[in-house]
Design brief:
Blueprint: H1 2-9, H2 11-36, H3 43-55, H4 65-98, H5 102-134, H6 147-155, H7 158-187, H8 191-220
Helix pairs in contact: 1-2, 2-4, 2-7, 2-8, 5-7, 7-8
The protein binds protoporphyrin IX containing FE.
Length: 227
């Protein structure tokens, strides 16, 4: 326990935790993006998929069992990721105060500033998104369990769709920087990874953006309509 705490207090420990929680979150956003594409198979496929997720693990676990385990794991990952990022930022700020070489740090501070602000935007977006499509609190015409219908009606508002596009754009940029730095760490052991880290990070982020953007764009273009 003490060793684990000592490791957490070190920068290396915090960076490792950021990487592990970040990989878990990236796995979720990729899986969620693929699930959203069920919208293109129609209302039965989309609503059926939502029921399938709610009943996953039943009757071994109660209904919603796996969903709640996933929600708790995601919340823990977001908390760890944000806390470690904040503490690392505080540490680097304190260190810079001692000897700040402006020219050297410009590129890095640009990337880390983007990551910090990107992270805050994504966090605010997720809060809005849950109120929009999970609880329906900020939805104009929400119907429980009619996921396909809720999504189509939600994206018929152009400002809402544009906001989602900006948010998934911020998410794609955040993932690009995050993957790039995870691949750089892995590349220390394996130069092959270093060579492909940029195209790999860019490819995955573009895939994520296109997959997420397809749904609001599909509604705005009239491809996804109410039955
Ligand atoms: C165009 C993009 C997106 C669409 C169409 C979409 C769609 C949905 C829908 C319909 C739900 C409710 C599912 C249900 O109640 O059965 C949902 C929940 C959720 N989405 Fe998204 N989503 C999008 C983007 C995102 C992004 C970018 C993130 C994360 C960064 C995200 C994270 C979540 C979370 C955490 C939940 C709550 C899951 C729960 O607790 O039940 N979504 N999404």
């Amino acid at each position: 326990m003490r060793q684990a705490l000592t490791l957490y207090r070190s920068s290396v420990g915090k960076k490792a935790l950021m990487a592990v929680s970040g990989i878990l979150l990236a796995g979720f956003v990729l899986a969620h993006m693929l699930g959203n594409l069920k919208m293109f198979q129609g209302p039965e496929a989309m609503d059926g998929y939502a029921v399938f997720l709610k009943e996953l693990g039943y009757p071994v676990l109660p209904e919603y069992g796996v969903l709640w385990i996933a929600r708790i794991a995601l919340l823990a990952a977001v908390g760890i990721h944000a806390l470690a990022a904040f503490q690392l930022w505080q540490k680097s700020r304190a260190a810079r105060g001692a000897a700040y070489r402006k020219e050297d740090s410009q590129v890095f501070s640009y990337a880390s500033r983007t990551m910090r602000w990107g992270g805050v935007i994504i966090l605010l977006f997720v809060v809005y998104h849950i109120l929009h499509f999970t609880t329906g609190t900020v939805h104009s015409d929400f119907e429980y369990a009619s996921v396909y219908r809720n999504v189509v009606i939600g994206f018929q508002s152009v400002p809402v769709s544009l906001f989602y596009l900006v948010a998934v754009g911020a998410l794609a940029l955040h993932l690009y920087h995050g993957l790039w730095s995870v691949f750089s760490t892995l590349g220390v052991q394996n130069p092959k990874v270093t060579r492909i880290r940029r195209p790999l990070a860019a490819g995955l982020s573009i895939l994520l953006f296109v997959g997420y953007a397809a749904v609001p764009v599909g509604v705005m273009a009239g491809i996804l309509t109410l039955p």
